[in-house]
């Protein structure tokens, strides 16, 4: 029969083993909890930094798009005023460079909205736009857009022929520099909304078009808005690529 001393010794050894195993498990649990706390803190800080970077880049992109839209509106509107396509009251003609002061801010705001919507819609549809994604292509797109506007006041033909010509040029601009469903859809939406807004302005006597043939405006105006939407969208997409490069550098090289 086992002696009492052997039984006591075996109990004490088992107790010490259980104590060691329990302390080891507690140590591992505390270390795991500490590591989880560190990881959570790092992820939280990274998310906060990423959110701040995204917000700052969104503001910067909006300001750049607003400036580009306001500048293009000012230049192109001056061209139409000089060619006697758009008429303003005499008191308005004495303001900002013989143009209405409110046109550049309105067009700048529209350019910022459209330019920010293009990359957002690409992301939402899961169709990243990869066709001709470089600044040289964007600059050529701007040049073609300015050329289409110049053609609207320079071509000497009837309104139907001019409208069809500008429609073909606008679709050619989309096909050459965009070719995306989101770009085409947003371009059409921009053309419709901007044309309706312009019709309301002309109807309320803010300004007028000479020889209107599409209610109160020229029939080629939607083509100008469509090509402008595609152009601003390409600028917005290119600026979004700059944003992702900035985030990447901050996350991996700082």
Secondary structure layout:
Elements: H1 4-82, E1 86-87, H2 90-93, H3 103-125, H4 135-154, H5 159-177, H6 181-203, E2 208-209, H7 221-253
Antiparallel strand pairs: 1-2
- N-to-C terminal Cα separation, in Å? 73 Å
The tally of domains stands at 1
How many strands appear in the DSSP assignment?
Answer: 2
Q: Main sheet? A: 2 strands, antiparallel
Q: So what's the overall shape?
A: elongated
| Number of helical elements | 7
Give the percentage of residues in beta strands: under 5%
**Helical residue percent band:** over 70%
Strand order in the largest sheet: 1-2
What sequence of helices (H) and strands (E) makes up the elements?
HEHHHHHEH
Low-confidence regions? 4-11, 244-254
The whole-angstrom Rg is 32 Å
State mean pLDDT (0 to 100 scale): 75
Structural class: mainly alpha
Describe this structure in words.
The chain has helices at 4-82, 90-93, 103-125, 135-154, 159-177, 181-203, 221-253, and strands at residues 86-87, 208-209. It is an all-alpha fold. Helices cover 79% and strands 2% of the residues. Strands 1-2 form a two-stranded antiparallel ribbon. The chain has seven helices and two strands, in the order αβαααααβα.
């Amino acid at each position: 029969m086992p002696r009492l001393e052997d039984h006591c010794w075996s109990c004490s050894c088992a107790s010490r083993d259980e104590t060691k195993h329990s302390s080891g498990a507690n140590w591992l649990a505390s270390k795991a909890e500490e590591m989880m706390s560190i990881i959570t803190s790092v992820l939280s800080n990274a998310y906060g930094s990423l959110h701040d970077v995204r917000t700052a880049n969104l503001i910067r992109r909006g300001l750049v798009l607003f400036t580009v839209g306001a500048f293009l509106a000012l230049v192109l509107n001056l061209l139409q005023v000089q060619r006697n396509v758009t008429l303003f009251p005499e008191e308005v003609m004495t303001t900002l460079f013989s143009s209405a002061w409110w046109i550049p801010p309105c067009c700048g705001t529209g350019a910022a909205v459209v330019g920010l919507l293009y990359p957002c819609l690409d992301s939402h549809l899961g169709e990243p736009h990869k066709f001709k994604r470089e600044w040289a292509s964007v600059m050529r797109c701007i040049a073609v857009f300015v050329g289409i506007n110049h053609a609207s006041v320079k071509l000497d033909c009837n309104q139907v022929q001019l409208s069809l010509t500008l429609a073909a040029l606008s679709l050619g601009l989309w096909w050459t520099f965009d070719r995306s469903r989101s770009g085409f859809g947003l371009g059409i939406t921009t053309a419709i909304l901007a044309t309706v807004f312009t019709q309301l302005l002309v109807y309320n006597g803010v300004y007028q078009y000479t020889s209107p043939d599409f209610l109160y405006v020229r029939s080629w105006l939607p083509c100008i808005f469509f090509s402008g939407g595609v152009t601003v969208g390409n600028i917005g997409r290119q600026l979004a690529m700059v944003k992702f490069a900035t985030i990447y550098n901050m996350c991996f090289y700082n």
